[in-house]
Structure formats: C-alpha cells, structure tokens
Amino acid sequence: MTNKNNTQSSINSLCDSKSRTSPEIDGERISNQIADRTQFLIFQIPANIDIDVLLVNHPINIPNAKDYLLYLMHLIHSIPASSKNISIIDTNGHTILNSTYLQNIVDNYRPLLDWLIDLHILQTDGSYIAKKKSMGYKFTPQYQVELKKVRITNKILVKKLTVRKWRKHNVKRDKIQLQPEHLFLYSDIPNNNYADYSTLAKQKLHFIFQWLNSDISVNYDAAIQYLYALKSLEEKHLNKEYAIHNFNCRKLTLDNLKNITENLCHVDSTSGRLHSPFTYLLSDMRAFISREGAILVSADIKNSQPLLSLVFLDYELFQKNEMQKRLAVFNPKNFGVEDSGSLCSMLGDFIQQNEINHDTILYRELVISGEIYEYFGNLLKEKGAAIDIPDSELRAYAKKQLFTAFFSRNNAIFKKDAVPLRIFKEHFPTVFEIFSYIKTGTHNALACSLQNLEAEIVLHKSCRDIHERAPNALMITIHDSIATTSDNFGLTEEILKGHLFNAINADVNIKREDWNESLLKRINSPRISLIQAPNISGSLYGFHDETYPTENKLYSFKYIAKRAGIKSNKKLYHGLRNLGYIQHDEFRCNIPNPAMLDEKQFPIIEKKWRFRTIRTLKATSNGVKFILNLINTNPNEFQ
Prior knowledge:
By secondary structure, this protein is α+β, with helices and mostly antiparallel strands. Among the domains are: 4-172, no CATH class; 307-450, no CATH class; 536-638, no CATH class. It has 29 helices and 18 strands. The strands form six sheets. Strands 6, 9, 10, 11, 12 and 13 form a six-stranded antiparallel sheet that branches. Strands 2-4-3 form a three-stranded antiparallel sheet. Helix 10 runs antiparallel to helix 11 (240-258) and helix 17 (343-354) runs antiparallel to helix 23. The chain is globular and about 75 Å long.
C-alpha cells in the first residue's frame, strides 16, 4: 500500500512525554528507549472538535474509542507534515491512510473511520486500488481550521506507537528493507540480535544525533508570523482549504523543531537516509534557526542524484563503490546472484563495454560541470517539448523531467506525455539503457541505490570525519547537505568534496547556502498573476470573475479563445497574445486548472477544481474589455 512509510514516520512527529518537572503540553517528546516510562502522548486535531461531547451524543461501542479516534484524526495532518513527497495538490487535500498499518495500531479502525465520516468530520476520496493505493481522507470544510493539542493516556496505544521492537515485528515480510548486515562497509557492527538496521545505524551516527538535542534556537514567534502571512497569501491566490491544510502541516513540523529530541529523528530502512524535523521543514523556515545567535550555513552537493549516477557509467567506480551489493539489496530478484550469466554480471559487462561511448562521456562532463539541467532544458526547447516554459524556469523544468529517468517505471516512456523522457533516451541512449537495466522488476532500485550511496558519503563518512577532526562542530544533515556554523563551513566543504572525489573521481562544486532572510522566498515574490482590472484575475487556462465573492465562476480559456476566432489547441494562448489580449508573467504557481473538465460547464463547482503548476499570464486592458464584453453579451453562459 502507498504511504506506509509515511504513516510509520508520522508516529514520531508529534508525541510528547511527561518530564519530572511537569512541562507544558508542547514540552519534551517521548523517547522510544524509555517507552515504559511514557505516560501520555500529544496529538493535534481541529480546534472546534470536542471529542467528549461527540461521544456522549453519538456513543460508539469500541474500547478506548476516544484515544483511537484522536489518533486517526491526528494522522490527517501528521502524515503529510512528516514527508515532502506528499503533494496536497496531487491528492486533492486527502491523506492516504494505509490499512495494513492501521490494523496493527487500531484493531477496529474501520468502524471508527466510518463514525467520523457519518458525523461529517472526515470525507474520503473514494479511491482504493488493491495493493497499490489505500483510501484517502480529509476533514470536511467545517473542520478545516487550526489545530489544538490533546492528550491521550491509553497505555496500549502509547506502547504501540513508541516501542520500536513492536513496530519491527509488524513490518510486511515481503517488503525490501535494509537489514543490519547491510551495514557492510563497517566491521564494528554491534552484536545485537534484537536490533534492526535503523537502530544500529542510529547508534553508529551518534555524532550527528547528539546535536539534535543541542542549543539550536528557533525564533518561534517570528516563524509563526511568517506562516500566517504565507497562509493569507495562499488563501488569496489558491484556496482556503489548501491554505489551512498547509499551515497546519507546516506548524506541526515547526513545533517538532522547537522541541526537537533525538526520538523525533530516525534512519530509514528503505535507503538508509536520516530523517528529522529539519528534513521535513519548509525551506523558508531555516531563516529562523540559529545557534547562540549566529546563523547557520549549509554545504550542498549540487546535482547530487545525477552526480552519483556516474558510478553506474564507469566500471571502476561501479566496483569501487560496491554498487553490485546495493543492487542485490534493492533488486534482489534480478541482482541477488553474481554468477557469470546473471543479470548483475551482465550489467557489469555492459557498463565496461560502453563507458567510453559518446553519450556516456557527454553526460559525465555535463553532470560534473553542473550544466546537465541547462543542457537538457535547451534540448527540450529545441525539440518543441518546452516551448511554453520561460527561460527563468527552464532549468527547474528540465530537472523535474530528467528525474523521471531516475524514478519512473520503465514503461513510463510509452505514455503520451513522456516526450521529455523519449528525448533523453534519444540523446543519452547508453545512460537510459543502463538506468532501465537497473530498474527492471523493481523500479525504485536505482533511486534507492543512489540514496544509499549518498547516505554513506554524507552520514557515515563525511560527518564522521568532521566529528573526528572537530568534535565541537555542529552538524545537521538534510540528505545531500550538511548544515553547520560559519566557522566550520570550510572544514565541512573540504571533507565533503574529498569523499565525493573518492566516489566519482572528479572535483565537484559544493554550494553554500546561508540560512538567513534570503530564504524567505514565498512572501517576497509574487505567487499568482492578477489581471490589471478591478475584481478580475487570470491564468493560462481560465479567467476567474471575483465580482460576486459568494460564487465561484471559472471561465474556460479555450472557450474565450474560440470566441476570439482562435483554434483551441496547445498554442492557443499565442493567438490571444498576438491579438494583444494577454502578456506573459515569468513565474509559475499552483492555480485551478479547468482544462481537464468539460469546457461547457459554467460555473465549475469548486470541488471539481484540479490543481497543477502552470505558467500564468496577465491580461492587457484590451483583453479585459474583450472578456467583460463576452460576459455582458452572453450572460446565460456565464451564470
């Protein structure tokens, strides 16, 4: 089922433990290592829900129903808050709840969810695909409000959510996970038959985890003010439902950061990455983090995934970084055997025979120079696959499309919208074939192998060496970057570059990022285009009439184009631009996209809005007059 890892990681996201000094509700967090001393957990649910009153008026005959209901409601925000991979736009605001995992935590979860749905507290997306997608849930509009903290004391639930050993034995057996023996690069593995990979890795990385309880400061009040400002902006330009959902998830992560403990951080057994509130935090919020009044700086590996993929294009690097062992872990069916004639042996031979091909050499040069995204972006534009993308956004678009070669399934190339992927295959055939070879049977084998190599370089090598040379140097990792204080940046950069050179035999640039006000991009830059006329706003696909604030009227851009005598096709906006009705806005944002709906439906109900990232436009004065004239002369079609 999808989202299982996210459900498990959310357990650590908002739990509090009772200290000897009886802290406030948002005080210390629960420690898995002292779970037997845990007395309560703290969950967060919509502020206008009174669970006691609801249970009195609508009793449910299930033991400990109150605590389990609080837990289920808490998951709606804690799961997306603990993962950047969950897009509220892709899920239409729903949170996927994995049924297998829920069954392990809450025996009678189904009637509890039904109870919440019957009382119109939750609603579902109605989408379930066996072994592929679990059902999604979100709060109904009445309960899409800010959250409040509630305390539960059920000892059974507390134990289930805090004891790692219990969770270990409830993992699906057929799921590919790292095991203790997969820390094969290190010989000093503790002899503990009961420890799992995550526990042992956490022990080995003690020099990182020690800083998570250090004197890192968060300007919480300023950060909350920023979140409120961002919420107001998104309410104005997006949707109130999405704005409050984003606000709650961001605040949950900020609360974790404010009261960070070692227990809120873990090493996953999927690829060996370290996760903490820092990895989930909105990047803007780093500007509010400091240590003893000084800002932090991070050393980032530029183009990390393409850069590390070079180990699959050079046989010496393939052997040196023991990639065959990683593939045996993440794709055991195809690479678990290293005999001659096996897929693993065939891959090694193919790499050795094609490492000097023209496209392989070109790819390597572009990746090392840091120009791969620019090159691929220009390539897409030449081939007509990025005509509508402004130059200022071409790099980001090319990066997104290039990553489909890393993360998509092999059959994705046959999809209608996979033109960029086919262009990549055309110009880098050897690279594409090697990537496809690795993903055969297990499409995430390539991504997991590269992430595992990244974890080894950043966590187990670079951070360890930094600790040995400067024991007092602060280290905070966010996957492919290490944050520290300004005085230790030089050492961090030197060590990180050294280990990268050992891995790929090339000097690479390390990007420095200062955690200051320059990161506050979302408020300091426009998020949506407004037409230069009162009460009217516009986008590439539609014009939104806000003259009547109680109604949602979204007029199809294709319809408007047709009325202007322009054919409805993907270049239709060029015609309107040539007529002087619209002009470009050089940024992208998430706005309603009615193009996927019936263009003759007016008005379009808000619930049917589909969101996507598209280029926005501005209407000229002539464009506004044209639109208003259409509205005035065709009132029946715009009701």
